[in-house]
Structures are given as C-alpha cells and as structure tokens.
TrEMBL record:
Superkingdom assignment: Bacteria
Organism, as annotated: Streptomyces uncialis
Keyword Transmembrane: no
Domain Putative oxidoreductase/dehydrogenase Rossmann-like: 11-132
Top-level taxonomy: Bacteria, Bacillati, Actinomycetota, Actinomycetes, Kitasatosporales
Residue ranges occupied by any DUF2520 domain in the UniProt entry: 149-275
Protein name in the entry: NADH-ubiquinone oxidoreductase
Keywords: Ubiquinone
Length: 306
C-alpha cells in the first residue's frame, strides 16, 4: 500500500481561512473583500478602540484575539501594521513559533517587498507582499473602491500566480514590483497621493481666507480636470502662470502668501520651481520668459521676493 504524500501547501483549497494582524484602516477592508470572494475571516487582532470598532463594523462576529492566535487559526494571514513596525512583528512571530509551515503570510506595506518576511519564510511560511495603491478610510466604502485598484505585488516566482490571484479576487489589478524597486515605487505613490492631500487642504484654506464660501465645490471640477489631464497627457497638461512664464503674477502670489500664509511660501516656491523645470524641458515655458520667472522663484522663502 502506497503511503500518501502530504499535500503541497501551494495546492491548498481555493477557499482560505483569513486572519488579520493589525485592525487599522487596511486589514479589515481587505479581509471583508476576501470574504465577498468566498474566503472566511476567522480572527483579527487590534488594540486601540478605533481598531476594535473598525473590526466589529467590517468583520462582525469575527473574534478579536492575540496576533499569535490569529496565526494559529488562519491559512492566510494579513499583516497590516505600520511600515516601521513590520520587521519587528515578523521576527517576533517567527521567534515565538507562531508561524506554521505552508501558511500564507502577506503584508500590505508599500515600502517592503517579500524579503522582510524572511523570518517567516525560514519557519516554512509562504511570503507575499500585496500593497493596495489606494488611500483608505477604514469603512465599507473602501471595499467598493478596491474594484480596479492597482496592487504592488512582490513574491517569490513560485508564488507569483497565487499572489496575483488573491489580488484579482479582491477586485484589484496586480502590478509586479521587483524587490529592489519597492522603496522607489512607494516614494512615487507618497509623492502623488500624500502630497496631493496637503496641496488640496492648503488650497481650500487659502480660498476660505479669500472669502470663498464653498472651496470644495470650487476646487472639485478644477482639480478633477487637472488630474485627468495630467494622467492622460503628462507634462503637456501644464497650465497656469508658471508654465506661461508670468513672473509678475507669480511674484504677486508670493507676496500674498507671505502676508496671509507664510508657512506655505516654501512649498509654493519649491513646487513652482519644479513646475518651471518641467515646463522648460517640455517646451511649454519659453526660455526668454524663464529668466524673470526663475528670479522670482529664487527668492528667500522668509524674505521679500527678488
């Protein structure tokens, strides 16, 4: 009689028990999305009141347990903690024997690839890096927003299909990112998304100062069109006084900002210089107009414009 071989964990059944370590804005949303695809959330860990409340809203009836207990119950574990906490968490779970051979361990950090999961890999786990390129509110609306969302995926070659399949089941679009490119990939996303929020908030603040009653309503169509144009046309979408070389207008902007929002002057000058460089390179800003403009932009953020 032939002794049956133990099953290869890569040939596991399609439906997985799912656990979440770190009930921040991302983990419960991804688990809820996987639940819609037929997987089964079985455990979640969280400490803060907001984490407990979020888990209860998005994963009702899923027990709140310790991280080690999450790993004991789940076939697929989502590590959704802040980037700086991830290496220590992985090492701690591996050192305490919480990681099981054949277990899928996936983190959602943009900064790290699969290598940060090496301690879990040495314990027999299957490492995946699945980073959704989206901002999260931690509410049910995020589950719908995952449809068409790109995920930065990094994993060993033999797990590539499994990683991409999980992303597709969440409604996302897998985008393969090489291990060594993860920090650059993440910097690009932070530059675009995080700084966009700051810029929009600053613009709304200035519009209120200028007496606009509904700055969000005023900015919505403008920024929506600017984003669409930029995604379609890149540098060809540049408009405004910097791209036109209107040095006098830019100088007036700087004067007003120094009077009403001095903390925004340095950021305005930095972005205007970057815009001028791109407009020059693209040919939108004519060289004969650039000298006066760059003279204005070369001014001291703390002092009068030159």
């Amino acid at each position: 009689m032939n002794t049956p071989h133990p099953p290869d964990p890569r040939d596991r059944p399609a439906r997985l028990s799912v656990g979440v370590v770190g009930a921040g804005r991302v983990g419960p949303v991804l688990a809820a999305s996987l639940q819609l695809a037929g997987h089964r959330p079985v455990a979640v860990s969280g400490v803060s009141e907001s984490s407990v409340r979020r888990a209860a809203q998005l994963l009702p009836d899923v027990p709140l347990v310790s991280p080690a207990e999450v790993l004991a119950r789940a076939d697929l574990v989502l590590l959704t903690v802040p980037d700086d906490a991830l290496p220590g968490l992985v090492e701690g779970l591996a050192d305490t024997g919480a990681v099981r051979p054949g277990q899928l361990i996936a983190h959602t950090s943009g900064r790290y690839g699969a290598k940060v999961l090496d301690p879990a890999l040495r314990a027999g786990a299957l490492p995946l890096a699945l980073h959704p390129a989206m901002t999260f509110t931690g509410t049910a609306v995020d589950v719908q927003r995952l449809a068409g969302c790109s995920f930065g995926v990094t994993a060993p070659d033999e797990l590539r299909m499994a990683a991409e399949a999980l992303v597709i089941e969440m409604g996302g679009e897998p985008e393969w990112i090489a291990e060594e490119s993860r920090p650059l990939y993440h910097a690009a996303l932070a530059l675009g998304a995080n700084h966009l929020v700051t810029l929009v908030a600053q613009a709304m603040e200035l519009l209120r100062e200028a007496g606009v009653a509904a700055p969000d309503r005023m900015l919505g169509p403008l920024l929506g069109a600017a984003l669409d144009n930029a995604l379609r046309s890149g540098d060809a979408a540049l408009t405004g006084p910097v791209a036109r070389g209107d040095a006098g207008t830019v100088a007036a902007h700087v004067t007003e900002l120094r009077a009403h929002a001095p903390g925004m002057v340095a950021g305005y000058l930095a972005m205007a210089r970057a815009t001028a460089d791109r407009a020059l390179a693209h040919g939108t800003l004519k060289p004969e107009l650039a000298e006066d403009l760059l003279g204005v932009l070369g001014g001291d953020p703390e002092g009068p414009a030159t």
